[in-house]
Write a structure and sequence with these properties.
It comes from Candidatus Pullichristensenella excrementigallinarum. Helix content is 43%, strand content 19%. The protein is of the alpha/beta class.
C-alpha cells in the first residue's frame, strides 16, 4: 500500500501518524510531504521512506498513492496558518486516493459532530482505517 502523509507547521501530526503506521503496517510505502521543510524533516525522522516539500510535491504525489493521510486542513485552501495553498487542497481533494483526515479543530475550521478526542486516539482510528483498506 502506498501512503502519502501531508502535514505542515512542525510536522507533529505527521510524525505521530508515520510512527503508528510503521508499527501497524510495516510493509506500507510511506511518502511524507511537508508544506515546509521543518515538517518534512520531522516526518522523515519518524520513518517515512522518502519525503519532499511544497506545493508541487503535493500535486505530484497525490496522483501516485492509495491513501492520503493528514490533518483536515490539508483539503482547505489557506489552512495551517496559510501553508496549504489552493493548488495543494485541490490536488488532494481531486486525488482518487482514499483521504483519511484527522479532525483538528484549529485554524478557523471546526467540524461539528466530531467528539473532542485526544490526538493519539485520532491517530489510532486513522491507522485502523488504513489497515482495513490494506486487507
Amino acid at each position: 500500500m502506498k501512503i502519502l502523509i501531508v502535514d505542515g507547521q512542525g510536522g507533529g501530526i505527521g510524525k505521530l501518524l508515520i510512527q503508528a503506521i510503521r508499527a501497524a503496517l510495516p510493509e506500507a510505502e510511506i511518502t511524507a510531504v511537508g508544506t515546509n521543510a521543518l515538517a518534512t524533516a520531522a516526518m522523515l525522522r519518524a520513518g517515512a521512506a522518502r519525503g519532499a516539500t511544497g506545493e508541487n510535491a503535493v500535486r505530484v504525489q497525490s496522483r501516485r498513492v492509495d491513501a492520503i493521510v493528514g490533518p483536515v486542513g490539508i483539503v482547505v485552501a489557506d489552512a495551517l496558518l496559510g501553508e496549504v495553498t489552493p493548488a495543494m487542497a485541490l490536488a488532494i481533494g481531486q486525488s482518487p486516493a482514499m483521504k483519511i483526515l484527522i479532525p483538528v479543530n484549529q485554524c478557523e475550521n471546526y467540524i461539528v459532530g466530531v467528539p473532542d478526542l485526544q490526538l493519539p486516539a485520532l491517530v489510532s482510528q486513522a491507522v485502523e482505517r488504513l489497515q482495513s483498506l490494506s486487507q
